[in-house]
Amino acid sequence: MCRRSDAPFPLAEAHGQQAAPLRFLKGTPGVLRRIRGEALSHRRRRRSVLEGRRRLRMARTTDPSLGGGAGSPDGCPPRSHRVAGPRDRSGCRALSRHQPRETTLKLYYASGACSLADHIALHAAGLSFDHEEVDLKAKRTKGGVDFTTINPKGYVPALVLDSGEVLSENVAILDWIAQQDTKLAPSGPMGRTHLLEALAFISTELHKSFKPFFAGGTDDEKAKAGEMIGKRMGYMAGAMQGDYVFGSSVSVADHYLFVMLLWAKRAEIEPPAPLAAFRERMMTLPAVQKAMQHEELI
Ligand SMILES: N[C@@H](CCC(=O)N[C@@H](CS)C(=O)NCC(=O)O)C(=O)O
C-alpha cells in the first residue's frame, strides 16, 4: 500500500502534489525516471526564474537608476516606496501608487551620434528618463560597465525600458517613444505606417550612407557617399508636407532627420535649401536644445 515517507519531497509539494517517497517507487524504474525527469525540469525552471530575479536585483543594486541602490540592501526600491503585498517577479514588493515611481527608463548614447534623435524624442515626449554616455571605441559606459552586456550589438542607441527589457535600433526606439506620446507620430489609420516608412528611409538610405565619413572612408568613397546623401536629401526635401516631415507638427522622424542634417554639416555636405531651413527651425525647439546641451553640442 502507499505509505507517505517522512522524508519531504519539496519540489512536488511546491507544485501542490502529494509528497511521493522514493522508497515507494523502488522496482518501477520507468516511472521513477519519468518522475525524476519531471522533478528535474521543475528544478531547472525554478533555477532559471531565480537566476532572472537575482540578475534584476543585482542590476538594481549596482545601478541606482534602475530603481534601487540607495539604501535598499535587498536591491529593491526603497522601503518607503513599496506597499505590503505580494512580491513582483524580481522579488521586490510592489511600488506604492502614492509614491513617485522610480525611473528605470534609461538611454545609452554617444555625444552627437544617432542616439541624439532618441534623446531629443524622449524630451519631446516629456518622459522622465536617465542617460549614460558610452565610449563606443572601448565599448564601456561612463560608469565603467562593459556596454556589450547591455546591448550585445555594441552600438548606441540602447534604451532600457521600465520592464528591464533593452530596446535597440533607432527605428524601434523612435517608434516606441512615439507610441508613448502619440503627438510625435502622424495621425490617422495609416499614420504609424507612414512614420515607419520615413524612419526606415532615414535609417537605411541616409544614416547608413554616412559610413565613409565616420569609418575612415577614402576621399573617393566620401565623394560618392556625399553625392548619394545629397540626392536622398533632395527626395526628403520634396516629400516634406510642411515645416516638418508630416506637416505642421513635429514627429520623431523630424528628430532623426535633424541629426542627419547635423552630420551633413559636419561632413560639409550642402543640404537642399528647405532642409537647411528645417535644421535651423529644429535648433530652436526646447527638446533639441535640452538634448544638445546635455551632450555638450551647444
Ligand atoms: N542599426 C543601428 C545602427 C546604430 C549606429 O550606427 N550606431 C552608431 C552611432 S551613430 C554606433 O554606435 N557605432 C559604434 C559601433 O558600431 O561600434 C540603428 O539604426 O540604431
Can you tell me about this structure?
Helices cover 46% and strands 9% of the residues. The chain contains ten helices and seven strands. It has two domains: 51 residues; 183 residues, Glutathione S-transferase Yfyf (Class Pi), Chain A, domain 2. The chain is an alpha+beta fold and 298 residues long. The relative contact order is 0.08. The longest helix is centred in the N-terminal third of the chain and has 34 residues. The site of glutathione has 11 residues, from loops.
Total tally of structural domains: 2
Largest sheet: 5 strands, mixed
And the CATH topology of the largest domain?
Answer: Glutathione S-transferase Yfyf (Class Pi), Chain A, domain 2
Mean pLDDT: 79
CATH architecture name of the largest domain: Up-down Bundle
Radius of gyration: 26 Å
CATH class of the largest domain: Mainly Alpha
Helical amount: 40-55%
Number of helices: 10
Separation, N- and C-terminal Cα atoms: 83 Å
Strand content: 5-15%
- In total, the number of strands is 7
What are the secondary-structure elements, in order, as H or E? HHEEEHEEEEHHHHHHH
